[in-house]
């Protein structure tokens, strides 16, 4: 079973990948340094280090589906409110 606390919803717009809210700082509409072409290799087993551009928090993405990214650490309830 996939641990829900390690997932985060994402959206694609053309070739860009966005999250509505950063799980670490709460910034809205964050453009991730991922492209849609990067999602398929992750789905096939490759891991990808993702650095959120809003607060520079890091997480390793280990899997994804059309709606969620799966990380190697919990993302829900992690907000640190860095300013």
Structure report:
The chain is mainly beta and 83 residues long. It has one domain. Helix content is 10%, strand content 42%. The strands form 2 sheets. Strands 1-7-6-5 form a 4-stranded antiparallel sheet. A 3-stranded antiparallel sheet has the order 2-3-4. Strand 3 and strand 4 form a beta hairpin. The protein is globular and about 30 Å long.
Task: Explain the layout of strands and helices.
Layout: E1 7-9, E2 11-13, E3 16-21, E4 28-35, H1 36-43, E5 48-51, E6 58-64, E7 68-71
Antiparallel strand pairs: 1-7, 2-3, 3-4, 5-6, 6-7
Keywords:
single chain, about 80 residues, mainly beta, four-stranded antiparallel sheet, three-stranded antiparallel sheet, about 40% strand
């Amino acid at each position: 079973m996939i641990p829900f606390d390690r997932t985060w919803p994402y959206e694609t717009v053309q070739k860009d990948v966005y999250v509505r809210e950063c799980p670490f700082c709460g910034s809205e509409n964050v453009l991730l340094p991922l492209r849609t072409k990067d999602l398929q290799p992750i789905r096939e087993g490759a891991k990808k280090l993702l650095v959120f551009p809003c607060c520079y928090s890091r997480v390793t993405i280990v899997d994804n589906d059309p709606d969620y990214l799966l990380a190697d650490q919990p993302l829900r309830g992690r907000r640190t409110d860095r300013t």
